[in-house]
């Protein structure tokens, strides 16, 4: 799933009454978030979050509507139940039998039963990003239920395989397990799956980086298509399950994610953003999209027109949904509409068919839609269109077929099957990327003495979109099965905290409230400290092996199996004081909320009980080191031939939904651990286990080998051991550029990858690891690259030979670069790839089809794709920076003519800009440009003919402003200044004009703002 305003669970509960300020703005209230204090433990099979108060009443209403009960009587035979009839006829028949009230009720996520027709309830949204993760239990009032099935590698890891065939098999397993859960309880486990996430990984600091696939649209499209096809199955008329693409669109930041504007110039939209979503839809590998929380060019994505975009990319009928809380944000945090009726009407007209809002309570949605109908903002035809879209997918899922259709016989026995475990191991193995391997450090020799060290060496972590692990094979487990483990340690400090002569004591068993009570540091007074960077640590109690968490909004308790939940309560800081003491600070996510206040430090009362207070009233603790993690790690490393150090991230802490990363650094404590181990044993192999690019320059220059993997599920340890010992030859490849430390990344809110020169497409920076990077235990040679004309395009072939002594996979990557163009072209762009297996000495010819249309750019002068006449470099290699063969092709195309600014030209179709923001012309359609004083847009190569004499602009402004017209540059020749009077607001458009000094020929024309102004179009008079 993907909460957008807060967690975006189908059913989300309000948090318990706690220290919240009444002035808290609507978008910061977690209506879609589980209550804190009931953190979901991914290791449990069915952990539930209870709804309270109004949410419980909503659940009762859901039951009354029939969501929790089967139809009371057998249905008569209707044409819509005849699988021999065409789909459209069946949909129309059922649609015609529903009352308007019944149809309106189906616009909510929880569609109630219609007992008179024998129709059961239907709910949208089961999370299935890398395995069936969780859903919501209607019978229990909306509690979250966690699946305990096959947890595959995180999505970015699946993409790192560069193997769509494998990803399709993973999708098949996920769709099958979804069916298995559905067979057990169809009210909980719906068959519309909210996956995959296809948002481009434009900025590696994005908190949800683990959920996406790649910074490249072609690779993202290929992987999402494979995953969706696997989920759906191969039956042309029926669906195993129904994948929904998230989140449309330009959603790559968490900071203020429901109010920030993703400003997309047309080239970025058409060449970068759209293709990522378009691929799966054009291939019939998805059944709809979920709208994102953010604004796109000033308009909330929740009401951005889907009818003119995604619905045109497929002949199939799509069933589109909003993200959780999205409909309410339109009148809440976004303040885009004055009433919920207006919001509901805009949402339906934009092509969204299902409102994910208000937990299980469909009444607010029904009320808003009924009000929109009463006010004439919607018609029954609008409702019929949306419900018809919903039904098209419900029918394809086999709901109205005898026995549930061809996939109706799948049972719960399919979950966590031996075949799925085997597939999981393969996926985790193929996903791993060998970043460095010098001096033959890897593979390890069987039987050599290995020390296994590090905070992630003997644990597996899940993330917000993981199911619960039915079993787990840690890195230590996997290595122990293979060779002689000379020693094992997590390499973390074990400490005790003392104040006033007493030690902080934890409970045993299930845990208890911490308090100052003991006079000596026994096991119940000791805590293992895990460093996650930025000063944030977690404290694991030695008393019971559980993590310390904040409880009851005030005290601390040792009762969590791992950090987790929507509010991650297990985060702390040990803040050093000048006198050598430390203050224990709660550092959970609520501390970023203004309503939480300054009470985030721990205070011990005279009786030893704990509470939270301000820094001034906090209790200073003495931090006593019972055992040094570094010393223990060094001792283990010295006693081994090779040290394997497993470091990385905790998915609930190092960035996640709603929280972007501040940096990409490895935690300093982990960095120092690796350096100490390497100093003790030069044969140190680093296993880096996280979900995003990491600045590890210091390690790259020191240790001989680095292997990267995502959090890869239950089979992580087996997969790592398979690679470390050479039973598998690594062939994973990076799907993102890994920058060097000190590389300045642009503002995370700036989506103009062309202007900011972001991603491998436009960056001129030398990265730490390039897009597509990955090493092997063997070597490969490339020969004989040829590009031949073939129909409307080219056939590109290259011979690839395994020149080493081990069998292995090579990922052959095809890039192109256009040498001449009217616009700035990518440095290089991925056009194709293939993962091929080669035995030692074996040669295969890898062939790609390169269509001329693939080389098109979005021509802003005419609002369409165009192929320019130009030479193109054809580049083939093993990474974007490891080109092994190259040739040149001449592409027959057109010369884009000079701009004709004597015709009405959209301001948004500029060629270059400084500070321009794309905004909405109206709340329904159209883009405009917002400028402030000194900012500008330019129109390159404008044909002014024999001369221009004036300019007319379509403008909107809240106050007086002006627009200068210049040529050559923003400070070039001034042709004239257009005065702009206040028009009365952002959507009050007026035409203004002014004479211009004569200018002729072909010129670059600049519009430079003098004050705040919006411009929708311009015309130059000749």
Question: What is the gist of this entry?
Answer:
The protein is an alpha+beta fold and 1022 residues long.
Give a description of the structure:
With 1022 residues, the protein is of the alpha+beta class. It has 5 domains: 30-49 and 122-376 and 391-413, Glycoside hydrolase, family 3, N-terminal domain (TIM Barrel); 431-490 and 629-724, Glycoside hydrolase family 3 C-terminal domain (Rossmann fold), CATH 3.40.50; 494-626, Trefoil (Acidic Fibroblast Growth Factor, subunit A) (Trefoil); 773-891, Immunoglobulins (Immunoglobulin-like); 905-1021, Galactose-binding domain-like (Jelly Rolls, Sandwich), CATH 2.60.120. Helix content is 19%, strand content 27%. It is built from 18 helices and 49 strands. The strands form 13 sheets. Strands 15, 16, 17, 18, 19, 22, 23 and 26 form an 8-stranded antiparallel sheet that branches. Helix 13 (475-482) crosses helix 17. The longest helix has 21 residues, at 164-184. The radius of gyration is 30 Å and the shape is globular. Residues 1-51 are annotated as: Disordered. Keywords: Hydrolase, Signal. Belongs to the glycosyl hydrolase 3 family.
């Amino acid at each position: 799933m993907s909460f957008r305003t807060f967690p975006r669970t189908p059913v989300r509960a309000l948090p318990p009454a706690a220290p919240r300020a009444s002035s808290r703005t609507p978008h910061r209230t977690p209506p879609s978030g589980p209550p804190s204090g009931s953190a979901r433990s991914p290791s449990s099979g069915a952990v539930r979050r209870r709804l309270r108060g109004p949410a419980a009443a909503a659940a009762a209403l859901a039951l009354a509507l029939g969501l929790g009960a089967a139809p009371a009587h057998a249905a008569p035979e209707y044409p819509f139940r005849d699988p021999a009839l065409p789909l459209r006829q069946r949909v129309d028949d059922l649609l015609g039998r529903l009352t308007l009230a019944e149809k309106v009720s189906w616009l909510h996520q929880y569609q109630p039963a219609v007992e008179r027709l024998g129709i059961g309830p239907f709910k949208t949204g089961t999370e299935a990003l890398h395995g069936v993760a969780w859903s919501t239990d209607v019978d229990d009032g909306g509690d979250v239920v966690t699946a305990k099935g096959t947890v595959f590698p995180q999505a970015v890891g699946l993409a790192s395989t560069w193997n769509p065939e494998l990803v399709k098999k993973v999708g098949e397993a996920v769709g099958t397990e979804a069916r298995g859960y559905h067979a057990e309880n169809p009210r909980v486990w719906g068959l519309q799956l909210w996956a995959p996430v296809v948002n481009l990984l434009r900025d590696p600091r994005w908190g949800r980086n683990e959920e996406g696939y790649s910074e490249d649209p072609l690779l993202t499209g290929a992987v999402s298509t494979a995953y969706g096809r696997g989920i759906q199955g191969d039956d042309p008329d029926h669906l195993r399950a129904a994948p929904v693409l998230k989140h449309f669109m330009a959603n790559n930041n968490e900071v203020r994610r429901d109010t920030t504007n993703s400003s997309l110039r047309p080239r970025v939209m058409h060449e970068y953003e759209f293709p990522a979503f378009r691929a799966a839809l054009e291939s019939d590998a998805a059944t709809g999209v979920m709208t994102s929380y953010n604004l796109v060019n000033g308009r909330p994505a929740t009401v951005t027109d889907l009818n003119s975009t995604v619905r045109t990319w497929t002949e199939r009928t799509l069933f589109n949904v909003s993200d959780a809380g999205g409909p309410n944000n339109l009148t809440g945090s976004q303040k885009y509409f004055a009433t919920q009726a207006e919001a509901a009407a805009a949402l339906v007209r934009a092509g969204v068919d299902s409102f994910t809002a208000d937990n299980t309570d469909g009444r607010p949605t029904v009320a808003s839609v009924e009000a929109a109908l009463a006010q004439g903002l919607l018609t029954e035809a609008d409702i019929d269109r949306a419900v018809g879209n919903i039904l098209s997918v419900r029918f394809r899922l086999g709901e109205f077929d005898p026995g549930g259709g061809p996939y109706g016989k799948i049972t719960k026995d399919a979950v966590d099957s031996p075949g799925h475990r085997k597939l999981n191991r393969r996926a985790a193995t193929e996903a791993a990327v060998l970043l460095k391997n010098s001096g033959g450090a890897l593979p390890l020799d069987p039987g050599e003495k290995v020390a296994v060290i590090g905070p992630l060496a003997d644990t597996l972590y899940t993330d917000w979109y993981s199911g619960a692990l039915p079993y787990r094979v840690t890195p230590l487990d996997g290595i122990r099965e293979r060779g002689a483990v000379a020693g094992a340690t997590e390499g973390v400090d074990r400490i005790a905290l003392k104040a006033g002569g007493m030690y902080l004591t934890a409970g045993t068993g299930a845990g208890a409230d911490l308090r100052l009570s003991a006079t000596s540091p026994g096991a119940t007074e000791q805590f293992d400290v895990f460093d996650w960077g930025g000063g944030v640590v977690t404290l694991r109690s030695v008393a019971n092996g559980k993590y310390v968490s904040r409880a009851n909004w005030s005290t601390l308790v040792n009762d969590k199996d791992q950090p987790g939940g929507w509010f991650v309560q297990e985060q702390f800081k040990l803040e050093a004081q000048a006198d050598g003491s430390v203050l224990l600070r709660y550092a959970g996510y609520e501390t970023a909320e203004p309503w939480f206040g300054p009470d985030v430090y721990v205070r011990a009362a005279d009786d030893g009980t704990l509470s939270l207070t301000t820094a001034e009233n906090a209790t200073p603790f003495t931090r006593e080191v019972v055992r040094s993690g570094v010393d223990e790690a060094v001792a283990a490393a010295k006693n081994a031939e090779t040290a394997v150090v497993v470091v990385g991230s905790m998915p609930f802490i190092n960035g996640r939904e709603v929280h972007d990363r501040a940096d990409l650094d490895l935690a300093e404590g982990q960095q120092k651990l690796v350096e100490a181990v390497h100093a003790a044993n030069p044969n140190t192999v680093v296993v880096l286990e996280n979900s995003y690019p990491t600045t590890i320059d210091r390690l790259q220059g020191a240790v001989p080998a680095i292997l990267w993997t995502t959090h890869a599920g239950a089979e992580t340890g087996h997969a790592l051991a398979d690679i470390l010992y050479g039973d598998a030859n690594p062939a994973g490849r990076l799907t993102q550029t890994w920058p060097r430390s000190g590389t300045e990344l642009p503002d995370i809110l700036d989506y103009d990858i062309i202007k900011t020169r972001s991603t491998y497409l436009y960056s001129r920076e030398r990265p730490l690891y390039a897009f597509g990077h990955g090493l092997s235990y063997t070597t490969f040679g490339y020969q004989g690259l040829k590009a031949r004309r073939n129909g409307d395009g080219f056939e590109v072939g290259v011979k690839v030979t395994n020149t080493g002594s081990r069998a292995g996979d090579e990922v052959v990557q095809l890039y192109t670069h256009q040498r001449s163009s009217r616009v700035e072209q990518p440095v290089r762009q991925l056009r194709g790839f293939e993962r091929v297996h080669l035995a030692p000495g074996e040669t295969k010819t890898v062939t790609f089809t390169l269509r001329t249309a693939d080389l098109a750019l979005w021509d802003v002068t005419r609002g369409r794709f165009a192929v320019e006449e130009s030479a193109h470099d054809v580049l083939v290699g093993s990474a974007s920076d490891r080109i092994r063969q190259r040739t040149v092709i001449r592409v027959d195309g057109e010369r884009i003519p000079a701009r004709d600014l004597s015709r009405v030209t959209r301001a948004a179709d500029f060629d270059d800009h400084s500070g321009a923001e794309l905004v909405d012309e109206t709340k329904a359609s159209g883009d405009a440009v917002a400028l402030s004083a000194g900012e500008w847009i330019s129109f390159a190569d404008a044909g002014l003919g024999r001369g221009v004499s004036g300019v007319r602009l379509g403008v909107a402004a809240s106050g007086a402003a002006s627009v200068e017209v210049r040529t050559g540059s923003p400070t070039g020749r001034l042709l004239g200044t257009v005065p702009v009077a206040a028009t009365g607001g952002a959507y009050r458009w007026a035409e203004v004009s002014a004479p211009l000094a004569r200018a002729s020929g072909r010129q670059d024309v600049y519009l430079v703002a003098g004050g705040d102004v919006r411009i929708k179009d311009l015309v130059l008079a000749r």
